[in-house]
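Progress against Task 2.4 (sequence-to-structure conversion) is shown through the following example record, which the project officer requested during the mid-term review.
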Amino acid sequence: MGLRSFLEQQFIDVIHWTEPDTGLLVYRFPMANMEIQSGAQLTVRESQMAAFVNEGRIADVFGPGLYTLTTRTLPLLTDLKNWDKEFHSPFKSDVFFFSTRQQINQKWGTATPITIREKEFGAVRVRAYGIYSYHVTDPRVFFTKISGTQELYRVEDLEGQLRNTIVAKMTEVIAPVDVAFLDMAANQGELARRVSDQIRPAFAELGLGLDSFVVENLSLPDELQKFLDQRISMNMVGDLGRYTQFSAAQSIPIAAANPGGGGAGEGVGLGAGIAMGQTLMNAMKNGPAAAPLASAETKFCLECGKAIPRPAKFCPECGKPQPTA
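Structure tokens generated for the chain above:
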């Protein structure tokens, strides 16, 4: 390789970037031992922006398009370098490309529960998670506050900062609100809107734009969730009396299916099921307080369903014979 060829390779006349993979926010164009030729071509593709940095200071920023680099297209850089007229010699600057496309399906969640004041349960601890998307809107701010002079800056480098910002803003929104948890969980769309209104200014301070924010789930601790499930079940049943009747009805097939050893025992099991059914009918007519309860010393009459002493061979109420175990 001759000296002329070596020198020609030290000047850059084409500057562009094609993203090799997803997840890159900033890419520094390789400039080691090279300078940009006056009149070089800068290509900025859609979903990109480019910035020239001189001696650590960000100067000109370019949106999508094709640019020929001169003092006309680099006014701020020209001013920083004190170029008073059209320059024709190569110049040294760092060129950074910024990806401005949406970074979608970014996940957020509460690493530890958020303590809130709940309308019905008092102070409770709530967990939440969801997804969001964003993009770089202001390369100057993002370069100054976030990426700096790193050669590559990736989405994962920013993930922790954004997630903590989201959780902090969500805490500010829901912690002081005196709203029932069920109402809050049933209106996750409205909750997401209120939280995103708080997040957008915080993202803008970093040079980012929030494109979407979704609350996928809002949940209570397991112990409180079980208690809430029981309350929901009781509300569905209606009242304790109806719940007792429902429980008795569920136990009939179990009692009838218990043979107890065959022969007379089978009759006892069937008789107990019939008697419990009659007792249930009486309970439905007269309320749960009227329903007698069997014990180790009593059994149910097969005819009238009354509780009678277990050794009795005849019902003292209706006189009908009773099986003995």
